[in-house]
Amino acid sequence: MTDDRLLEPFKDDNLVILKNPIANARFGLSVMQTKVLFEAIAFFKSNQELRTMRLYIKEFLKNVGAETNNYEYIAKEIDQMTEIPLRIQRTTKKGRLDYLKVQLFSSADYKIDASGFGFVEIEISDKLKPYFLEIAEGEFFYYHILNTRVLKSKYSIKLYLFLKSWKRKGQVEISVTDLRALVEVEPNEYTEYRYFKKRIIESAKKELSEKCDITFEYQEIRAIPGNTKSEVVKIRFFIRENKETWNKFREKRELEIGKAEPVKRLQPTKSVSVPAIKIETVPQEIVEVSAIDKRIFELFRIFEPEAEDNEIGIYLEGIQADRVRVLEVLLFAKQEKAKNITIKSIYSYIVYGLKNNIGVGLAAKENKAKTKGAQAALNRQAQQLNKQIKQWYEIDFVYVYNQHLIDVGASADNEQKNAYVSHIQQLIADTPSLKFMYYNPDQTLKADELRRGLGAVLTTQRGETMESLFVEWVQKVKGIKVELFEGAWRQVTEPLF
Record's InterPro entries (predicted)? Predict the structure, then answer.
């Protein structure tokens, strides 16, 4: 059982606590990924009840002294950590050594908060927690997170952790082969010991001496003791306190970046209630959203249904990428989703897609398909309208036209009417079977039929036809222009000039 007094220093939010096996673990991480991991460890040590955290990228880059503001790069680096297992050495009950593979992060989603700041929401793997949260059992070590933040080399970080875990002993001996594996040097890198010594050991010694709370000296152990020409097979490290230099460096560093509160650096993703405040609305400039942005928003919400336009817009401004390329990546992501391929974070996927030329040409292809589809839709619409025009002509306008002829005939003078009646009587005399068309059974004239007939004669004399009158009627009543083309009615497209 650990003495409570020993746990008192661990309340510091900037403290990283690790079990000793972590110092020997195979990370397989870049420098930036390693620093992200320890930021997460420091956070979850102080927030053990939480499963997720927010890592604000701008603050993180400032804290680690990064020389880049490339959010795409950081988002991609963190997203890759969901696929990287940590190999932790452990001892079995039978005393044998083996390795446990533990997933670093269960998920890592790049998002934008309500204020427009980019962050990565990280969910830690449950299997990893015992190695840096449950310190009551097993040997562990701890350090201030600034130590690993400021180191530029991943080799220096790994060597620092290893030596820190042995600090209580004061010294540790390790074979060159195991040391190469520990700091994760590639098999084809620094194959000659002199280069390994210069690039790894001496470089780490310089960095630790200038920036960290420990430093070291080391002794080379050769295959043949006393023979300076024989191969160096082991290194014995002597670990020393470096408090005076460390304190000065820490003060200088805090003055450079400002002492940021942990809550600004890392924030829990749990709901909090805040008192209501009165907000006075002010007129805002209306910004018209382009068609391509609307399409991007639409595709984006396939993966992030709750994302709002302003949130997506801020993200797009942040990555400063060509909108067409973003659209193409999203179109490709949509295709992948249709194949049941999981995309954990569309924010990170866009960054990845932009860098790897994913989806190139899909926007033009979609535009071509849209144009073709739009033309087909227009053709269908035109066909439907032409069909409607035909219906107007054959059904709706027939009544209108007949009434028009009756009105024209009724408005004729008596001379025209008498002449037309004489014409009809002569027609009936020549063809008696036509009499029923103009006379009722009681032998009285059908007035409307005579008016309609006279109206037809008069409109023809005026140069009017049923078709020309229909064109006028459609424009007046339906608001469109039509024409009879090759025996079929169609809408007339207005010329541009």
Answer: Initiator_Rep_WH1, WH-like_DNA-bd_sf, WH_DNA-bd_sf
Share of the chain above pLDDT 90, in %: 21
pLDDT attached to residue 221: 95
Which class for 336: exposed (0-12), middle (13-18), buried (19 or more C-beta within 10 A)?
middle
318-356: per-residue pLDDT in tens?
A: 777 888 999 999 999 999 888 888 887 887 788 888 888
Domains present along the chain, CATH in parentheses = 4-268 (1.10.10.10), 291-360 (no CATH), 364-491 (no CATH)
Tokens matching residue 333: 């992501």
b/e burial code for range 343-376 (CB count within 10 A of at least 16 → b): bbbbbbbbbbbbeeebbeebbeeeeeeeeeeeee
Alpha carbon distance 261, 59 (integer Å)? 10
**Cα–Cα dist 138/86, whole Å:** 19
Whole-angstrom Cα distance, residue 58 to residue 111?
13
Task: Reply yes or no on whether the pLDDT at 306 is more than 60.
Answer: yes
Helix (H, G, I), strand (E, B) or coil at 205: helix
Distance between CA 390 and CA 381 in Å, rounded? 14
In this prediction, residue 93 carries a pLDDT of 66
CA–CA gap between residue 129 and residue 105 (Å, rounded):
11
Identify the band that residue 497 occupies on the pLDDT scale cut at 50, 70 and 90: low
